[in-house]
Give the backbone structure.
Amino acid sequence: MRVLVVEDERLLADAIAEWLRDETHAVDLAHDGAAALERIAVNDYDVVVLDRDLPRVHGDEVCRELVASERDARVLMLTAAAQLDDRVTGLSLGADDYLTKPFAFPELAARVLALGRRSRPAVPPVLRRAGITLDPARREVFRNGRFVPLSKKEFAVLAELMRAGGSVVSAEQLLEKAWDEHADPFTGAVRLTILKLRRKLGDPPVVETVPGVGYRIA
């Protein structure tokens, strides 16, 4: 998934990003509310991990504007305030989940994954198509019962193709979801990853190229 982490404590932000990237997500960073709104305006995020106490634009206002924009991103709000009233306020602003600091990274990662499954339309916890079984929580892929070892990027690309349910996914969409904002749109990264994915999934070929359009799982 594509995730935006908005946190002004840079060491914490980097640690969250590193953990989520290890979970195969593409992660962008913003260290204040204004930068977060700029990224949200131009990128399509599945989940926004949003610190509440932000400089320039408060996290509450970021959440309000994100909800008002009617984008599909889910919001996991982070805060040091653990009182019930604070949690209620955060959720009333439109946040989908609320996590107090300090937190355990595995719990944060699990909550991000759960929110991603609640995207529109909802994504099942385990994806199955054309003999492929993909489990995002365990980061495991099987084809016809055979375990398929994939790199993080190969797993992320396959997950997007599986989520599409047979619909065509363009190279641009794959770049948007599986790579972060620093990806060069003119590289052959998507094509190379698809080639490696096909080789690892084996015969008969299951990832189909639709010329001039994109890729799909037949």
Q: What stands out?
A: Residues 4 and 54 are 14 Å apart (CA to CA). The helical segments are 10-22, 33-42, 59-68, 84-92, 105-117, 152-163, 171-178, 189-201. The longest strand covers residues 74-79. The radius of gyration is 18 Å.
